[in-house]
Amino acid sequence: MQTMWLGGAEWLAVLRIGLGLWWLESWRHKDKKEWFKGGGIGWAAGIAEKHRWAVVRSGFDAVVRPRPRVMAYVVAYAELALGLGLILGFLTPIALVAGLVLNLVYLVLMIHDWAEQGQNLMMALISLVALFAMSWQAWSLDAALGIFL
């Protein structure tokens, strides 16, 4: 498929790179000093405590609450890795699936706050389109290295 400026594979690369920039912005805008002291995880704990689904409360208590500092680093650096991986097109299918999972976790945690859901739903949709349309075919290290052909 050819459009006025770019072919289909290039437009999918634009979509993938845009999603990567979105993840990079999610990482960039965090107040790292406060985040790594537990601010972000503390905020999430308050939401999880009042969550309408018991599985979310118990899952948070089992996985995140015992290790808030580690989880703060995991979340922040996962967003950074997703952003860089998608922008560079390196291990793209893995980054897209990981991003989709992270967006779904955010979506489930914040299920009661629909103002927050627009971003997570849009990023999840872009991840699905980019994954199933194989957005790593152009402008990516994956294509240059012959990975995931």
TrEMBL record:
Any Pfam family: DoxX
Subcellular localization: Membrane
Keywords: Membrane, Transmembrane, Transmembrane helix
InterPro entries from the UniProt entry: DoxX
Magnesium as UniProt keyword: no
Domain of life of the organism encoding this protein: Bacteria
Spans traversing the lipid bilayer: 6-24, 94-114, 121-139
Membrane topology: Multi-pass membrane protein
Name of this chain's protein: DoxX family membrane protein
Organism ancestry: Bacteria, Bacillati, Actinomycetota, Actinomycetes, Kitasatosporales
